[in-house]
């Protein structure tokens, strides 16, 4: 039977849970068998669970069946209306992003829809840029072109170095929804030292992820997933992962040849056409984003007022 995995906010801190249509079931209340996959830290987060993913998977599959049978009578049960979800993997070691992946996205910027000599990729700070479902995202200071992009996010369940395609596939624990937010006017394309990806893409809260982790076994072929993004219920992006120039498994394998991927690491796999920059429309305070990916989930965040600089702030440089 299919199930997802979630991270719940509780009085005791973050707690991993099985997500079923009937509600959520906290792993720390399902018995001692999960202590081994949490390294003795029963009831920890999904990030901790990733360290023992291979051992946890069969236990989770069996527990999901038991939870479905028990329903609300289970001691582990949390009703959906009482559940407070946070981002599934709050503190990954790495958030790796791959760009220039979708043919239609390249075409809308008048770029050749073909593979680059080197697959474009970069790192984002994972600890402050990731937020979860229902969170508000404040527009960063100094930008007037705050843009949206929906991305299939991969969560790793094994350590991976210099991998082939089969090994890359086997190392994926599951998938979730990612939103790649960009300050287009802070990319600084005219700079003589190159594009500024930190100001443009890696500021606080610019990588919403969630709401749940869908195990790879239930997603199937990641190259057959529709993905859509809405701003205030108006559709802006409507694409399919079949349009990728680099498949998901190829992206993971390529990254692993340069950076060792570890359990819990997240990979953003690129975005389809329909970004705000392509139509000259950008996010404003009060906007709501809803990003959907078939078989994976739907993630919503609200756009808040711009963060303010301290009075008298001025960026200075030292010769």
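Q: What amino acid sequence fits the structure above?
A:
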């Amino acid at each position: 039977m299919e199930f997802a995995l979630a991270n719940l906010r509780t009085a005791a801190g973050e707690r991993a849970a099985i997500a079923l249509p009937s509600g959520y079931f906290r792993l720390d209340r399902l018995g001692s068998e999960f202590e081994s996959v949490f390294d003795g830290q029963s009831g920890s987060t999904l990030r901790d669970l990733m360290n023992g993913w291979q051992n946890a998977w069969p236990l989770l599959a069996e527990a999901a069946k038991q939870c479905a049978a028990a329903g609300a009578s289970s001691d582990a049960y949390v009703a959906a209306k009482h559940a407070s979800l946070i981002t599934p993997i709050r503190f990954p070691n790495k958030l790796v992003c791959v760009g220039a992946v979708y043919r239609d996205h390249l075409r809308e910027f008048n770029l050749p829809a073909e593979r680059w000599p080197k697959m474009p990729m970069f790192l984002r700070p994972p600890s402050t840029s990731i937020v979860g479902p229902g969170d508000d995202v404040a527009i960063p200071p100094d930008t007037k072109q705050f843009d949206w992009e929906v991305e299939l996010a991969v969560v790793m369940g094994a350590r991976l170095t210099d991998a082939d395609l089969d090994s890359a596939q086997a190392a994926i624990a599951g998938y979730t929804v990612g939103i790649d937010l960009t300050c287009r006017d802070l990319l600084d394309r005219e700079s003589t030292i190159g594009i500024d990806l930190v100001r443009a893409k890696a500021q606080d809260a610019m990588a919403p992820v969630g709401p749940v982790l869908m195990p790879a076994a239930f997603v199937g072929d990641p190259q057959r997933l529709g993905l859509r993004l809405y701003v205030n219920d108006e559709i802006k992006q409507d694409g399919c992962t079949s349009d990728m120039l680099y498949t998901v498994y190829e992206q993971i394998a390529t990254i692993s040849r340069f950076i060792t991927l570890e359990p819990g690491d997240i990979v953003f796999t690129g975005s389809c056409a329909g970004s705000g920059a392509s139509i000259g429309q950008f996010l404003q305070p009060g906007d709501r984003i809803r990003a959907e990916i078939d078989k994976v989930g739907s993630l919503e965040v609200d756009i808040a007022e711009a963060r303010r600089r301290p009075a008298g702030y001025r960026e200075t440089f030292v010769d």
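Q: And what stands out in the fold?
A: The CA atoms of residues 291 and 299 lie 5 Å apart.
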